[in-house]
Amino acid sequence: MASLQEGWLPDAARYETASYNRCGRSGLKLPPITLGLWQNFGGIDPFENQRAMVRRAFDCGVTHFDLANNYGPPAGSSEENFGVILQKDFRAHRDELVISTKAGYRMWPGPYGEWGSRKYLISSLDQSLKRMGIDYVDIFYSHRVDPETPLAETMGALDQVVRQGKALYVGLSSYSPEMTRKAQAILKDLGTPCIIHQPSYSMLNRWVEDGLLETLGELGMGCIAFSPLAQGLLTSKYLNGVPDQARAARAPSFRPEMLSDENLARVKKLNDIAQQRGQSLAQMAIAWVLRRPEITSALIGARTVEQLDDSLDALKNLSFSLDELTEIDKYATDGGLNIWRQSSNADAEV
Ligand SMILES: NC(=O)c1ccc[n+]([C@@H]2O[C@H](COP(=O)([O-])OP(=O)(O)OC[C@H]3O[C@@H](n4cnc5c(N)ncnc54)[C@H](OP(=O)(O)O)[C@@H]3O)[C@@H](O)[C@H]2O)c1
Predict the structure, then answer these.
(1) Nearest ligand 1 atom, CA 38
(2) Which residues lie across from 64 on neighbouring strands?
(3) How many C-beta atoms surround the C-beta of residue 218 within 10 A?
(4) At 197, is the secondary structure helix, strand, or coil?
(5) Is the CB of residue 106 less than 8 Å from the CB of residue 69?
(6) What is the CA radius of gyration of the chain?
(7) How far away, in angstroms, is 202 Cα from ligand 1 center?
(8) In whole angstroms, what is the distance from residue 28 CA to residue 169 CA?
(9) Which of 20, 72, 106, 249 has the smallest CB count inside 10 Å?
(10) Nearest CA to ligand 1 atom 22
(11) Which is it for strands 98-103 and 64-66: parallel, antiparallel or unpaired?
């Protein structure tokens, strides 16, 4: 009988040199680099390129793929495309994958289409499972704090989806240290420990160093750092103008002020340091977030297989000398202060 697996077999050696990090004090291990499907996996993007990136990632030992209800555009289409890839290429490999999704940002019209009510979270996860064609996700996140819904209701919904068998683990994204502590306490009481936090973190955006990483270490939660390349700014691509296909030219999430002369001067210096280390700037930026013991995984994006390959090679040199770290701080911070000035909730994905 013809198999849907026909045509593609993953690299049999994919686990031979791969290593994995334990996620906090949980039993789950994650790859040091995870592929996120926020951009470049939507209905507007070429499907075969998406498929090639997911295949390559898996071939290189990347077992974790991160999604959210609203990824696209249009919202929902990344989950649909990923579902097709799963169906075509990964039917024999579901148990080798850690698939995450989230709910929190606007997904459908009306009062139940965003934030953190039980009504929204549970129906959103049901929709995500349908779009991806799977029975459960490995990690389900509350994507942002809802200032109006009681935290106990949002956490109760996370606990409920685990009890329903629709998620194996739960996580928080962009919660402050204080809200993380409260959320974890509620979930622990309910018997569903929260194993992971997903905040933004890069050489230019260090808000997590102001209490969050310490809190996660104390609570035994893992941390997956998103946008370690600052959406592509921490690469060499903008040093000679804006390439046509680059995110700055295509996506509203890349704010024009990110390309200020001051930022570009910083990036140029960081690029010099990376070159002295024999790495691309993208590789150094990924290695840099992984230097902290609290970071379980660097959550990257990619537009091409070549970019993905370049980024995965970050793992070839993860160590920094004290001098290198000091040099990086000199150019990536303002006298040690975070220049990006992002707060925990600043990364709306709409
Ligand atoms: N929880 C949240 O609120 C939240 C928010 C944002 C993101 N996320 C997650 O984090 C993931 C990653 O976010 P992100 O895409 O902003 O991450 P990123 O890794 O900081 O940026 C990825 C972009 O950088 C460029 N790039 C990647 N590798 C490159 C390389 N080796 N050389 C040159 N350029 C390279 C590409 O942009 P070009 O198109 O310009 O080449 C690529 O799309 C998302 O997919 C999502 O899963 C979560």
Answers:
(1) 45
(2) 98
(3) 12
(4) strand
(5) no
(6) 19
(7) 11
(8) 9
(9) 249
(10) 301
(11) parallel
Name the stretches of the chain with pLDDT < 70. 1-6, 340-350
Task: Output the CA 216–ligand 1 centroid distance in Å.
Answer: 23
Other residues' Cβ atoms within 10 Å of the Cβ of residue 134: 20
> Which backbone phi and psi does 335 adopt, to 5 degrees?
55, 40
pTM, two decimal places: 0.96
By C-alpha distance, which of 226, 220, 214, 222 is closest to 177? 214
The pLDDT of residue 297: 98
SS3 69: coil
How is residue 153 written in tokens?
A: 């209701």
Neighbours of 303 (CB within 10 A): 18
pLDDT at position 339: 72
Tell me 298's DSSP state.
E
DSSP letter, residue 67: -
The CATH class of the 20-344 domain is alpha beta
pLDDT computed for residue 187 by the predictor? 98
Structure tokens at 278: 């024999």
d(CA 158, CA 142): 8
Residue 179, C-beta contacts closer than 8 angstroms, at least 6 positions apart: 145, 151, 172, 344
The pLDDT of residue 2: 46
DSSP string, 138-173: EEEEE-S--SSS-HHHHHHHHHHHHHTTSEEEEEEE
Which residue has its alpha carbon closest to ligand 1 atom 4? Answer: 226
Cβ contact 143:347 at 8 Å: no
Rounded distance between C-alpha atoms, residue 70 and residue 339, angstroms: 29
The model's pLDDT over 312-327, given as tens digits with 9 standing for 90+, comes to 999 999 999 999 999 9
For residue 265, give the amino acid letter. A
Contact of 319 with 325, CB cutoff 8 Å:
no
Contact of 140 with 158, CB cutoff 8 Å: yes
CB contact at 8 A, 166 and 134: no
CB-neighbour burial class of residue 194 (10 A; exposed 0-12, middle 13-18, buried 19+)? buried
